[in-house]
Specification:
alpha/beta; Rossmann fold; GMP Synthetase, Chain A, domain 3; nine-stranded mixed β-sheet; 15 helices; globular
């Protein structure tokens, strides 16, 4: 076999085995916005990914290369991911609707052997004429990459340097609680360029089936759970909140669900309790981790009721420490930086950034999040990374939004913060100092300007105009103070719901 010697079953072998043993079994169901379903069998996925893989090879893709995938949730996206693995490359999903200038920055950082989407829309047509026979077995040395933004708002790609193999230890979360989930039917409501969405491919390769929504819609998601007897799904708090607000939701049939997982942002306690009421505490799971995979915590709903507000204890061998700025351990229940150590710590790498996560001499790493550990080892998150806004499960860095808005000729200065929001967790809020206080741009104009330069989730949902941004002599701004002032202001509190 070409490539590194690794333990586990190579992805290419696993796809072929499933196609041989279950050729007509539905592996993936794609659901469009109207609810129409397109089913893809294991035979189709195996043969089609061989064709697309050959088309990639013809364009110069080889073992160890990166393949950027600028595709929405679609048949092509699924086929291209599997094809990249089959030729030994690392698939890197890229948000397909980025503005051109932002997309170009991401592409420059990624430096992929091939970008599938805008530049290679005819790749799938070329594949039609190619052989669907098995490809030579290879293993990608890096399983995938996920696009993100650095603390300055500049793009970066987080590469997972684990090889593309399926390990026997790759089991669903409930197994740690002694729950056998059996063969799963998984709803994928999230975008496949998102960490949680892309992670579902591991379950596919384990033999589970995926029902992938082209675009999330709360009502459609519930219909699919009932109609397809979905056994599990992972969603952001925003998605779970939208589902919970549907009229008559407590009368819907969730009996097929074995487990529901929340990830990507803080989970408001009231929403946790709502979902415990909907599915039961023993079927709701919450976790804390990051794309760099330095570690993981997890907690089940019934356990959460005994430790409300916690995000769990170290999971799958993860060790936790809370350290101060000098990397000294802090006392129980004192807030500090969350450090983790696990078997996957250090198995990541950055493109577009030379700075790795802070790490201790004995291998504990931190993403910069703040939290505390209680006497029983339960973790409580105090804050996310400094300044970063988690809105609807997506990470937004203020510097990037500020840089875009500062280009507006009528804006003299701008600061972007995150304000609590009942739907989004936090919403992006822009505080604008206009060039002419007597003639500021309108809120719609500011948001429209941002939409031309930023992905939709980064566009400020609210805009506030002030006479002057309160900066220090060193031109710094106290974001925490700005947030505190606005969350205690009666007018802003009304906006916050």
């Amino acid at each position: 076999m070409t490539g590194p010697t690794v333990e586990g079953t190579p992805f290419i072998t696993r796809i072929r085995t499933m196609a041989d043993e279950h050729p007509d079994m539905v592996a993936v169901s794609l659901v469009d916005e109207q609810g129409s379903v397109t089913e893809l069998s294991w035979r189709h996925l195996d043969e089609r990914s061989n064709q697309v893989g050959r088309a990639m090879t013809a364009r110069g893709v080889g073992v160890g290369d990166r393949v950027g995938l600028e595709l929405p949730n679609s048949r092509g996206m699924v086929e291209a991911v599997l094809a990249a693995w089959k030729v030994g490359a690392a698939p890197v999903p890229v948000r397909w609707d980025l503005p051109d200038w932002e997309r170009d920055r991401v592409a420059q950082v990624l430096d992929a052997a091939l970008m599938v989407g805008r530049e290679s829309s005819d790749l799938f047509v070329e594949a039609d004429a190619l052989s669907s026979a098995p490809l030579p077995p290879v293993v990608s040395p890096s399983v995938s990459g996920i696009c993100s933004s650095g603390s300055t708002g500049t793009p970066k790609v987080i590469m997972d340097h684990n090889p593309a193999v399926l390990l026997p230890s790759s089991k669903p979360f409930p197994a740690a609680w002694g729950v056998d989930v059996g063969t799963q039917r998984i709803l994928v409501p999230t975008a496949l360029y998102h960490t949680n969405g892309f992670a579902q491919f591991t379950y596919l390769l384990a033999g589970d089936s995926l029902t992938i929504m082209v675009k999330f819609d709360a009502a459609l998601a519930v219909d699919l759970i009932e109609r397809q007897r979905i056994t599990t799904f992972t969603a952001t708090p925003t998605m779970l909140a939208r589902i919970a607000r549907l009229p008559g939701i407590d009368r819907r049939d969730f009996s097929s669900l074995v487990w529901v997982q929340q990830g990507a942002a803080s989970f408001p306690p009231a929403l946790v309790r709502t979902w415990i009421d909907l599915v039961g505490g023993d079927r709701l799971y919450m976790c804390y981790g990051m794309t760099e995979r330095i570690g993981l915590t997890a907690i089940r709903g019934d356990e959460w009721l005994e430790h409300p507000g916690s995000i769990g204890r170290g999971f799958r061998g993860t060790e936790l420490r809370i350290l101060d700025q000098d990397q000294h351990e802090v006392p129980v229940d004192e807030v500090g930086e969350i450090y983790m150590r696990s078997t996957t710590t250090g198995m990541y790498g950055y493109l577009g950034s030379s700075q790795s996560l802070p790490t201790t001499a004995d291998g504990f790493a931190t993403a910069g999040d703040l939290g505390r550990l209680d006497a029983e080892g339960y973790l409580f998150i105090a804050d996310r990374r400094v300044d970063m806004i988690v809105s609807g499960g997506a990470n937004v860095f203020p510097a990037e939004v500020e840089a875009a808005l500062s280009e507006h000729p009528a804006i003299a200065d701008v600061v972007v913060i995150g304000l609590p929001d009942p739907e989004w967790g936090h919403r992006v809020h822009a505080i604008v100092e206009p060039e002419r206080p007597d003639g500021p741009p309108s809120e719609d104009e500011v948001r429209g300007f941002a939409k031309q330069r930023l992905a939709g989730y980064k566009v400020p949902k609210t805009v506030e105009f002030v006479d002057a941004i309160p900066r220090s002599a060193a031109t710094k701004v106290n974001r925490a103070q700005l947030v505190a002032e606005r969350t205690s202001d009666p007018v802003m509190t009304d906006l916050n719901g």
